[in-house]
Amino acid sequence: MTSYSSQGHLMKIIFFIFLLFSLQVQAQFIKVDATGAKLADDAKEWSCVYDESTNLLWENKTEANKKYTYNWYSPSDYYGLESKGDCQFQGKCDTDKYVKYMQGLCGVNDWRLPDKKDLESLVVCPLGKSQSWVNNYECNSYQTDGLKIKVNATYFPNMSYSYWSNDVYEEITSSAYYVNFYTGGTDRDIKSTPMSVMLVRSGYTPTVKEELHYPTWDSATHTLTIPKFDASAPVSSAKLRFDFANGTFEILESKEPVASGKK
Predict the structure, then answer these.
(1) Can you say how many angstroms the Cα of residue 18 is from the centroid of all Cα atoms in its chain?
(2) What does the pLDDT read at residue 254?
């Protein structure tokens, strides 16, 4: 049996338990393997990244393919030019052919070229972002903010600088928008320009995603039950019973052996 000095101390214990639990359910990004299954956060290899905040699934670039470039092309576009980029499949280095080639990645078949807003959702600006179109909404002090590529490198470690979006520039339709992850800004360029491409898929949930369980409090027995969320959760499943009269609590169940006794 373990004791606590006061009810205030008890509340701190409960708060700490809930704080640890909250850390395991607030992760923005989830690593996904080539079949579409969820991976542990410490996985060393992954094919896609699921962003829970936007409900978007992203292609994860690799060290090998991050260098390849593609020009913006659509068969229905008047200004379209085929295969002006530099990729592993010569003659197929444009956005249209790349989208078709990548179908089936991570178990899905509706990959697309991202909108500029999709790409902008990945931008990380340590010192905030400009709200002016004059400088393309770049990150403030992007050259000296300590972040070379303005993205979460833990989940997107192989990003290059500029990525095509699907959005055509309204005033000059021979150009399209792209996001520059060096500056964090959005700009436009002529469609024949070779540039990086990273595909996205909307409305996806990993095929292996455990049901979310919350801690429960039984007021009749003064028992707090903390379920284990998944294999990477920092909190083991446990059940604690509190004795308010004697100022003690007892660990009834725990994944790891826990010594008990009154202090």
Answers:
(1) 23
(2) 61
